[in-house]
């Protein structure tokens, strides 16, 4: 079974985006569905959101 994680910034919020390594991303309000995200796409996404301008 996949281990879904949410951002530490979400605290105890129930409306958030969750991620599972090797699986993809999903909306916590609709956990039955998810979007598959490959390793290269996820790495590019993280690089984009963590880049300092």
Automatic annotation (TrEMBL):
Residues 2-49 form the DUF397 domain. It holds the Pfam family DUF397. This is DUF397 domain-containing protein. It comes from Lentzea albidocapillata.
